[in-house]
Amino acid sequence: MGVTIPQGSAEAVIVTSGLTKQFGRRTAVAGVDLEVPAGTAFGFLGPNGAGKTTLIRMLLGLLRSTSGEMRLLGLEVPALRAEALQRVGAVVEEPRFHGHLTGRENLRCAAAVRGHETYAQIEPALRRVGLTDRGDDRVKDYSMGMRQRLGLARCLLSDPALLILDEPMNGLDPAGILETRRLIREFVDEGRTVFLSSHLLDEVERTCDQVAIIDRGQVVIQGTIADIAAGHDPVVVIGCDRTEQAAELLHGDSRVTEIANGETGELRVRLAPNEHPGSVAAALNRALVEAGFAVNRLEPSRVSLEERFLEITSRLGDEE
Amino acid sequence: MTTLRDMVVAELLKLRKRRGLFWWSVVLVVGSVIVIEVAVQIVHIFDSADHGPAGGTPNFAGTMSGLSAFSGLTAVLIGTTAGSGDVSAGVFRDLVSTGRSRLALFAVRLPGSIAMFVPLLVIAYLIAVSACYGLAGNQATPSARLTIHFGVWLLIGRVFDLCLAVGLAALIGARGIAIGVLLAWQLAVGPILASITFFGVFRELVPAAASDRLRPVVDNNAHLTPMSIAAALLVLAVWAAAMLAAGAWRTATQDA
Q1: Do B93 and A113 touch (CB under 8 A)?
Q2: Helices A144-156 and A174-189, interaxial angle, to 10°?
C-alpha cells in the first residue's frame, strides 16, 4: 500500500482553531488549538474525561462542534468532510463489529461503504495485522487483541494518510501492545500520520514523536516529548548517609529550590530553571563531601513524560 | 451506483448471516404455509366427508390470511433488525467516520431488508398457489387474476411493514421496543381503530383499514371501509414515507 502525503511533509494534517464543544452547560472541549504535523506519530494525552474522545468525534463528524474551525488533511470540515475522510482511517474507543459476521465479512461491509475499489484491500489489510488465518471466524469469538487488530485492518482499507486511533492499546496483553506499537511505527515509516489518543503515558512516550496534553477540555502543552520533558525544572538525585542533615545543608544553596525524599531513600534535589544540572551536581557533591557526608550516588534525573504529565495536570487542578 | 449496490449487498449479508433471524423467518413465512397446507390435507384424508382438500379458492384465501399474519411478523423482525442493527452493534460511528452520507447509510437498509424478505415471501406464495391448484380436488380454483391479486396484496402489505419497521427502529434506536410497538399496532391497535365505526371516515387513515381495502374479496367478505383503492394506496404510502423520513432524520442528526 502506498500513501500520498498532503504537499510537504511539514504540512499539518490536523488543525483545529478555537474548537469548542458544550453539552448543555458543561464544556467538554474549550477552544482547542491543535496542530498535528504530517508523517509523525502524535500522542494525544489526557486523563479520563479530559475531552480526548470528544475532540476525535468532532474531527470525524460524529459530533457537531459548538464553535471553532477544523481542517483534516488540509480540507475544512465539516464542509469537505466526505472528501477528507476518504483518506482517514479511525478507531474510536473500543473497536466494534457485527459479532455474528466473520472478520472478513465485517471488512466487506466496511469496504462496501468506502467504495468498490477498497475490496482489493481486504486481504492485504488482514495479512498486515496477522488475521488472515482467523478471517473466517466470527468476530464474537475474537479476543480483545484480535478486535483491536481487526480495527486497524478496517482503517487500512482506505489506504489512509491519517490514522486516528483512540486508545488502541486498551485491553491488550504485552505482546499485543508490542505488536500495535510496531504497526504504528511502520505506518509512520510509510509516511502516514498516526494520531494516537491515550492515557497510557509510557506507551505514548515509546511510540510517539510529538504529543499534546489535554486537560479539562484544554490543550495545555504541545510539542516533542523531549521539549515537553525539558520544560521541567532540572533535578539531581543524590544518595548519601544522614540524608536529613544533608538536606538541611543543601537547602542553604541558592541554586536549590526544593528537596524531596525519593522512593528508595535518595534525595531528589530540584534546581532553579536555568541551572545546568551537571555543573551544579559537582558543586553539591563537593559541599557534601567537605561536610563529611559519604556520597554514594549522584546523577541528573531524566524527567519522564509521565512525571511531566502529572505535574501539568495536577498543577491545573491546584489552580481551581 | 456501484457503491450503493455494494452497500445493499452488505446490508443483506448482515441480515442473512444472523442465523436466528434467518431460520425463524424461514419457519414463519415458508414453514407456516407448509404447516397450514399439510394440516388441512391431513384432516381431509382422515375425514373427507366433513373436510375438503387443502386446495381450492376458500382454502387459498385462508392460507393467504395466515401467510399475511406470519409474514407481517417476520417483516417486523427483519425490518427492525435492519433499522437498528448498525447502531446496536456499535458500528454506526465507524460507518459515519468513512465520510459516507448518513442518509445513504439509512437508505440502503430498506432495500437490504426487502432483498432478505421478499424471496421467502415469493417461495411461500408459490407453495400456497401450488397447493391451491394441486390439492383442489373437486373444489373451484381461483382465477389467475384473483391469484395475482392476493400476491400483490401480500407484497404491498409486507413492504409497507418493512418500511414502518426500518423507520421506527432507526427512530427509536432500540429493536426490542420497535418490535413491541409495531406488533401492538399491527395486531391490536390498528384493527381495533379501523373497526370502530364511530370514527367514520377517519378510519380510512388507519393502515389496517387501507390494507384491508386492498385485500381481494372472497365469498363476499366486506371491507372494513369503503375507501377507494387509490386512497388506500395513498394512505399506506404516506405512513411509510412518514416513518422512513423520521428514521432518516434520526440517522442524520443523532450523535454517532
Answers
A1: no
A2: 10
Mutation choice for A interface testing from B81, B98, B105 by most A CBs within 10 A: B98
Cis peptide leading into B58, omega within 30 of 0?
A: no
Q: What is the pTM of this model?
A: 0.82
Rounded Cα distance between B231 and A185, Å, is 65
Q: Smallest CA–CA separation between B251 and chain A, in Å?
A: 11
Q: What is the pLDDT of residues B120-179, one digit of tens each?
A: 999 999 999 999 999 998 899 999 999 999 999 999 999 999 999 999 999 999 999 999
User: Residue ranges of the domains in chain A?
Assistant: 12-226, 233-302
Q: Are A79 and A65 in contact (CB under 8 A)?
A: no
A116:B18 CB<8 A = no
The domain segmentation of chain B, as residue ranges, is: 2-253
Q: Cα-flanking dihedrals φ and ψ of residue A165, to 5°?
A: -120, 120
B1-56: pLDDT as tens digits: 778 999 999 999 999 999 999 999 999 999 999 999 999 999 999 998 888 888 99
Q: Between B144-172 and B109-134, two packed helices, what is the crossing angle to 10 degrees? A: 150
The fold of the A12-226 domain, in CATH, is Rossmann fold (3.40.50)
d(CA A145, CA A175): 9
C-alpha cell at A8: 510537504
Contact B15, B122 (CB under 8 A): no
Q: Which CATH class is domain A233-302?
A: alpha beta
**Residue given cell 391497535 in the structure block:** B189
Q: Which of A109, A139, A148, A155 to mutate to test the interface with B (most CBs of B within 10 A)?
A: A109
Grid cell 500520520 is found at A193
Q: Could you give phi then psi for residue B104, rounded to 5 degrees? A: -65, -40
Interface contact A85-B94, CB threshold 8 A: no
The strand pair at A12-23 and A218-224 is best described as unpaired
Q: Do A116 and B95 touch (CB under 8 A)?
A: no
Query: What ipTM did this prediction achieve?
Result: 0.89
Binary contact (B13, A81; C-beta < 8 A):
no
